[in-house]
Amino acid sequence: MAEPQAERPRLCVFPDLSRPPSAADIETWWQPHRKIFGEFSSSSFGDFQTVFDQPQEYFMELTFNQAAKGVNKEFTVNIMDTCERCNGKGNEPGTKVQHCHYCGGSGMETINTGPFVMRSTCRRCGGRGSIIISPCVVCRGAGQAKQKKRVMIPVPAGVEDGQTVRMPVGKKEIFITFRVQKSPVFRRDGADIHSDLFISIAQALLGGTARAQGLYETINVTIPPGTQTDQKIRMGGKGIPRINSYGYGDHYIHIKIRVPKRLTSRQHSLILSYAEDETDVEGTVNGVTLTSSGKRSTGN
Question: What is the pTM of this model?
């Protein structure tokens, strides 16, 4: 028979048989262990450990500007961490623990079933090697307790909606997923931002300058003569920091021409005069008709 390898946990050793073990042999060995494995898989200790090993996820609301520029934001979390009263030992401070005689303090127990040997976590002490006589009144012997902590979250500049970061809190880790609010001014495309700028008809025809709201400051925009509606003006490096690279994105300003709804008498006369000289009009213009010679004239 092969010697059991005691140093490796949960090791099953089959005897040195002249033939491989049959299904009947395996079933014979497995039958008395069903209850044992069932106890380990459904024990409160196993479920308890699984709960603590799972990082907790939180959601943080950010404004568009906070996500774009970065911010240090205070945040409250409720996490399971090492019990501060017993320092994770599980027993009430000032009390002693009892040596586990079931496993001899090793935390592992050996089960012999015929020719088979199995080592597994001690069912009596749960692998601690000792028995807690007076459990901690806060964590009730678990060594872990729910704690409310206020932490400062350094939000990196350029995070996007739905991105998640990992952050250590105490001896644990948490995941924080950012939810970025929409901006009434800017639209985002990666590290680039887009916004609209309304200009007058005169500015569009003759050119000039206009002031646009930027991410970091007010921008003076030069309007070239003959600017068309929806024309884009690129402001290089005025966008959002590239989170996985160097530099900044660009700010694209979309020109919108504001057409006045009402005109003064003088403006009306000037526009009619301008309309008389237009040659690329498809259709008609109110107040301007074609004469018999094909030239435009102002109708009465």
Answer: 0.64
